[in-house]
Amino acid sequence: KVTVFQWANYMDVQIEMSKQPGQDGVCGNFNGNQGDDTTQTIMARVGARVPMSECLLSGHALIEWTHPMDKMMRAECPPATLTAGQAQCAQALGAAGDVV
Hints:
Blueprint: E1 2-6, E2 11-15, H1 39-46, H2 67-76, H3 79-93
């Protein structure tokens, strides 16, 4: 079951499915051990990005940075963290990045 929540400036998608062999991701690996479902342990297992060979989506997503998103980040994200994140994004996307 796929549920889409569309807001004025972004979209959330909830996917409900039965457990699959080797399943892992943002919500953990469904082994009943919450201790290995931290951001750090998930990143160690699956990394930051889905390999293109495993991607279920076609094409390349356009990342649009809207004014409401900017306002939210400035209100909720410490300046040092925001600056570091922007630097990492710029490095990852390079000059060919399609951030608007």
